[in-house]
Amino acid sequence: MRASKYDVEYYVPGKKRRVAGSTKVTSDFLTMVHNQYPSYTISQLYALVIDHSKYIKFPEAIEVLEKHLKAGYGDHVPKWR
Predict the structure, then answer these.
(1) What is the model's pTM?
(2) Within a domain: residue 75?
């Protein structure tokens, strides 16, 4: 079995393969944003994160959210804790 180059891997319901991977710092950031807006979907969280008047630019977090969107999970509320 090959070791992952990521600290955290993201999975979505119904898929065995990971959608994205990130560092622990990115995971903590996304969890923090999600905890502030617990009912927001991936699309809504993406809109928040790319709004640089609300958060500093965080390319890796944006990439994780974009991969969720590309996989078709923009309307899902994540379970990041």
Answers:
(1) 0.89
(2) no
